Backbone:
């Protein structure tokens, strides 16, 4: 079974530029999550999708962050414009609706550096 | 809302020694508890989880954790660590489908 795929793995941009990250969850997983992991901290949930609908985006900085999952499969997270404090690893995770215990499968992450 | 506190940011230990990584949680309702491991430049991997039933949970790589409701703790243990166990360990809590909260992480360093 293929895991959660993310691209790119690394990205370096200047502040005020835009950036987009892509995630392809495990096939058949209806629930998809985006997390932000700042160096030295645990992952923080940014947004959760159930199929193509948003379940929770309460911690998403909506003035600069946006995410979509138009067809309920892969997802894109965008930052526009980026700030220095957005430097972090962005993790995507997915979970099957029928998964007992709410186990989430994580991708390798995208490491963003804003200079 | 639920929260997680990992009491040690770094734990150095010698190879073959036992280790305990501490985790306390806060929640007004029943919770699900998890331990994840993150190796350098990799995503998070589930070590073990507590849903209900036996309070002693066994996971992969020889790790186990004990759920203590009265102390609201879920400490992770391994009787004998290897160099390859060097990684960041995250405790997490979930109370529903919508939210999983992670602790700040504990960096375990196993020295020869």
Residues:
């Amino acid at each position: 079974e293929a895991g959660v795929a993310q691209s790119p793995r690394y990205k370096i941009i200047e502040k005020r530029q835009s950036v987009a990250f892509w995630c392809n969850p495990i096939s058949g997983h209806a629930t998809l999550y985006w997390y932000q992991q700042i160096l030295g901290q645990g992952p923080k949930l940014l947004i959760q999708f159930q199929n193509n609908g948003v379940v929770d985006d309460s911690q998403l900085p909506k003035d600069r962050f946006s995410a979509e999952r138009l067809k309920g499969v892969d997802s894109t997270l965008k930052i526009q414009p980026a700030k220095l404090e957005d430097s972090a690893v962005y993790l995507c995770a997915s979970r099957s609706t029928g998964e007992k215990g709410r186990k989430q499968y994580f991708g390798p992450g995208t490491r963003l550096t804003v200079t | 809302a639920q929260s997680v506190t990992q009491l040690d940011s770094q734990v150095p230990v010698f190879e073959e020694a036992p280790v305990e990584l501490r985790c306390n949680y806060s929640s007004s309702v029943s919770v699900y508890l998890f331990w994840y491991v993150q190796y350098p430049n990799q995503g998070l991997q589930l070590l073990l989880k507590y849903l209900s039933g036996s309070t002693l949970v066994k996971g992969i790589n020889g790790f186990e954790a004990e759920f203590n409701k009265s102390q609201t703790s879920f400490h992770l243990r391994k009787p004998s660590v290897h160099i390859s166990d060097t990684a960041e360990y995250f405790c997490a809590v979930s109370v529903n489908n919508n939210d999983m909260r992670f602790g700040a992480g504990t960096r375990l360093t196993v020295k020869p």
